[in-house]
Amino acid sequence: MLRNSRLLVILTTDSLAIAPSLRHSVDMPETPTKAPVLDDVSKAIIEQLQQDGRRSYGSIGKAVGLSEAAVRQRVQRLLDAGVMQIVAVTDPLQVGFPREAMLGITVTGDIEKAAQELESLAEVNYLVICAGGFDILAEVLAEDDDHLLEVINAKVRSIPGVMRAEAFVYLTLRKQIYTWGTR
């Protein structure tokens, strides 16, 4: 598990292509236009922020060859376009959520409707519509095993169309990174 809170930049363009319904929970544009073309300077700015989301615009400017004001403007455009977000990543154990699980969910009927209901659950912190053995993957945080059971039994399985929900309880987190760069 992560032991320190830290800031990070999350690229969201791919997530939106997989699960457009996620836009609502991360304040993304409702109807994203064609993904913005990122020039080398914007990519370099993103990579600087992926390394340290608290890095100053001045130090980023020095690294990429722009003024502080130009970096500030570019970062704002990237945020407004939904290309990235800057957030604090915390260790769930340190903030009262010792139980984490990934739920593999099989749906009959409209997957989007089920996903929309799932994204409204406070315990769901990651949600994707996917291909394969499950229609939806939902990561949930819970206060304890009883809370996890309540989420699965009373909340997830009661959603219309949910045919099956399989829980993969996390025992330990071995790797979680956000510095994958840009292409």
Summarize this structure briefly:
The protein has 183 residues and is α+β, with helices and mostly antiparallel strands. It is built from six helices and six strands.
Name the features.
single chain, 183 residues, alpha+beta, Arc Repressor Mutant, subunit A, Alpha-Beta Plaits, four-stranded antiparallel beta sheet, two-stranded antiparallel ribbon, 6 helices
How does this model look, in words?
Helices cover 33% and strands 23% of the residues. The protein is of the alpha+beta class. It folds into two domains: 6-89, Winged helix-like DNA-binding domain superfamily/Winged helix DNA-binding domain (Arc Repressor Mutant, subunit A); 94-169, Alpha-Beta Plaits (2-Layer Sandwich), CATH 3.30.70.920. It has a four-stranded antiparallel beta sheet with strand order 4-5-3-6. Helix 2 (40-51) crosses helix 3 (57-64) and helix 3 (57-64) packs across helix 4 (68-80).
Question: How would you name the CATH homologous superfamily of the largest domain?
Answer: Winged helix-like DNA-binding domain superfamily/Winged helix DNA-binding domain
Over the alpha carbons, how many angstroms does the gyration radius reach?
A: 18 Å
Uncertain parts: 1-31
CATH class of the largest domain: Mainly Alpha
